[in-house]
């Protein structure tokens, strides 16, 4: 009732203002816009699934209470007053639990209210911001919501800016997606550069290790060659020394023989 009074008052003020200067008025169909925003449809689907879960819990408790009432009704004639009082008290406690849980789920400040705020409000904020931007750009003085409780007795389609709002949201989403994809590409490029750099460093490390291994092998081979040459030189030297010694021994033997011969003569 209060909202209708506000609407009537707004129309009255608008009428007075129109008499003073031309006014630009537009309207939107909020429900139409929401139904065409994927985020809102997804949020509503998630909210409905949660509501079904909550309702199932409430129905289970309600069934338990009805079962307790049925059992009490069937057994009442056989029970004492004290037992009847205890069972009735148990039923009242369960009914109170049911009432409190129902309020916790669906009350003015219940889980459903806060979940709707969490899921739906971001989409509503998008719409509100889009309406604000369009109203400022098109210089609309008033923008109504056709799907609200406020009564619009007549609306001319040429003043419906719902599609403009939708396009604004879609454009904003595309810009956001482009920006996100740009960030993703940049991150992917940076990751690719880092990966390439890491691979290059790994290749360099492997090449350095391979070169060091080859160097050590070459040094080992060179050392073996040197040792082999030295061993051959020493063996050759020993052979020469042996040959020279044999020559000396033969020469000494010949000389001794000659000296012996001369002495005998």
Question: Topology, please?
Answer:
Blueprint (H helix, E strand, L loop, with lengths): L1 H19 L4 E4 L1 H6 L2 H38 L5 H26 L4 H28 L3 E4 L16 H103 L1
Parallel strand pairs: 1-2
Helix pairs in contact: 3-4, 3-5, 5-6
Describe this structure in words.
The protein is mostly helical. It has a domain at 2-6 and 24-160. It contains six helices and two strands. It has helices at 2-20, 30-35, 38-75, 81-106, 111-138, 162-264; strands at 25-28, 142-145. Strands 1-2 form a two-stranded parallel sheet. Helix 3 runs antiparallel to helix 4 and helix 3 (38-75) runs antiparallel to helix 5. The protein is elongated and about 165 Å long.
Quick structural gist:
The protein is mainly alpha-helical. The chain has helices at 2-20, 30-35, 38-75, 81-106, 111-138, 162-264, and strands at 25-28, 142-145.
Keywords:
single chain; 265 residues; mainly alpha; two-stranded parallel ribbon; 2 strands; signal; coiled coil; OmpH family outer membrane protein; Chaperone_Skp
